[in-house]
Specification:
Blueprint: H1 2-11, E1 19-20, E2 28-32, E3 35-43, E4 49-54, E5 60-64, E6 68-72, E7 79-84, E8 96-101, E9 110-119, E10 122-133, E11 138-150, E12 160-162, E13 168-171, E14 190-194, E15 211-214, E16 219-224, E17 230-234, E18 241-246, H2 264-272, E19 280-282, E20 288-294, E21 305-310, E22 315-321, E23 328-334, E24 342-347, E25 353-357, E26 373-377, E27 396-398, E28 405-409, E29 415-421, E30 426-432, E31 436-440, E32 447-455, E33 458-466
The chain binds calcium ion (2 copies).
One calcium ion binds near residues 257, 258, 259, 260 and 262.
Length: about 475
């Protein structure tokens, strides 16, 4: 099986050619299958973009490592600062790192961030909730949810993700204290799971503990797919960078296992410690960071793939998943050494991909425009909802508001249904082979959603309220 996996990887395409426009050197196009994708700068003169989140206000929400949180207009590139943290310690690779917005942002306007700070001379890390005021354009009322996590200037993890069940995952690094990754008594070297008020979820694997998975070195990418699967990227030492499928309660090996369970001592450890091997590894290392999932018709060649922002190799990697999501069937490099070190990646509801660079202070000669937010888009794509024949396409949805399930009445069979939350994240997809479909809403949080129906004759969207 491992031989097959490596053979497939060796067959994957690498290093597609790039064409720079003479009129605008910052404009680059590259092919994804038969699609031409255009890359251009949205915003410039930033300082180490660590996180980019697509907000329910259709702005990009951005963290910079020195401590600033901003909203960025994706149409104009205007940067609207909300807050510069008063107590952040940006030294080495530390500072303001991950960020996520509350999924019911209209009624719970909370912004969750992770950053390094100093306490009694020691570098620490904390998770803090701020409250957003759209009227004032501010973030105020910091509420510490988790603090006193040991830190150094490297290995801080700190990617945040709110799961479909409404709990929060946070990656932590080993803080260069390797054995802590295997200790349930330490919050270092883990993926932690919290309720949004900072309490421990009752169904965590160890009662009273935030630990969701253990044995991590420095995971800086984290994503959940619409069907619930979770993946994470992780920096290895001088070998074995990893992408892992995250499964509750599993041990990801560090520091006893690097990459696969393939050395004699590793095999013994893996056999007795519930170790989950990575889906794929890189030796020499590439420095994998932000991770997103792409499944939008705008760029068909990327559908069903993870997109990985890569620092050291300075590229965007497409990792195509097999149908069950238990194997990566190809790895394809894009934009190699075009924009420098890539740390953050997010996908908008329109199928555009936004990348954040981490060049300033980290490479010898950053560009004058660094750091940047780059957008990747298929400029020829026309959403089905705006096609001329779309006006005739409509559907019924009832009951609405709904509780455990809703019925969708469609004009024709073979319709793809997509349910998105107000952050534009896909929470449910299914295909209806008949003109009546049932949406199972039992796993969704109460709130407002958009149901999109895509068929051969057009598409339509309706609002659905789940109680
Ligand atoms: Ca591992
Ligand atoms: Ca190994």
């Amino acid at each position: 099986m491992k031989f097959l996996r490596h053979t497939l990887l060796a067959l994957s395409t690498l290093g597609l050619p790039l064409v720079a426009s003479a009129q605008n050197p910052a404009l680059t196009t590259f092919p994804v299958g038969t699609t031409t994708v255009t890359a251009s700068a949205v915003a410039t003169n930033l300082n180490v973009v660590w996180e980019i989140v697509w907000g329910p206000d259709n702005f990009l929400w951005v963290t910079e490592r020195f401590g600033r949180i901003s909203r960025v207009n994706p149409a104009t590139g205007q940067v609207l600062p909300l807050l510069t943290l008063p107590d952040v310690t940006p030294v080495g690779e530390s500072g303001l790192l991950g960020m996520v917005l509350h999924p019911q942002f209209a009624t719970s306007p909370y912004v969750y961030i992770v950053y390094n700070y100093t306490n009694a001379g020691d570098l620490k890390e904390k998770l803090v909730r701020y409250t957003y005021s759209a009227a004032a354009g501010t973030l105020t009322a910091p509420l510490v949810l988790l603090d006193e996590i040991d830190a150094t200037t490297t290995h801080s993890g700190s990617r945040l993700l709110i799961l479909a069940d409404g709990t929060l995952l946070m990656t932590t690094g080993d803080a260069q204290q390797r054995p802590r990754a295997q200790s349930l008594a330490s919050t270092n070297g883990k993926i932690l799971r919290l309720n949004l008020d900072g309490t421990v979820p009752a169904d965590n694997p160890v009662a009273g503990s935030y630990v969701y998975t253990l044995g991590h070195r420095n995971p800086q990418g984290l994503v959940q797919l619409p069907d619930g699967r979770i993946y994470s990227s992780e920096h290895g030492p001088n070998n074995d960078d990893e992408v892992n499928k995250i499964e509750v309660g599993r041990n990801y090996g560090w520091p006893d296992v690097e990459g696969y369970c393939n050395l004699p001592a590793e095999t013994a450890f893996c056999a007795t410690n519930n170790v989950r091997e990575p889906l794929t590894t890189w030796t020499p290392t590439i420095a994998p960071a932000g991770l997103a999932y792409y499944d939008h018709p705008a760029i068909p060649g990327w559908r069903g793939s993870l997109l990985l922002a890569v620092l050291k190799e300075r590229s965007l990697l497409q990792l195509a998943l097999d149908a069950p999501g238990t194997a990566i069937i190809s790895r394809t490099d894009f934009l190699a050494r075009t924009f420098g070190r890539l740390r953050a990646v997010c996908v908008s509801p329109q199928g555009k991909v936004y990348l954040g660079t981490s060049n300033r202070g980290q490479i010898a000669s950053p560009a004058a425009t660094d750091d940047q937010i780059i957008v990747l888009e298929n400029r020829a794509y026309i959403p089905t909802a705006t096609r001329t024949n779309a006006a005739a396409f409509t559907f019924d949805l009832f009951p609405n508001p709904a509780r455990r399930q809703a019925t969708v009445q469609l004009p024709v069979p073979n319709i793809r249904l997509t349910v998105r939350d107000l952050l534009g994240r896909t929470v449910l997809t299914q295909r209806s082979s008949t003109t009546t479909a049932t949406l199972n809403l039992a796993t969704l949080q109460a709130g407002s959603y958009l149901v999109q129906a895509d068929g051969p004759s057009g598409s339509a969207v309706r609002k659905l309220v789940v109680e």
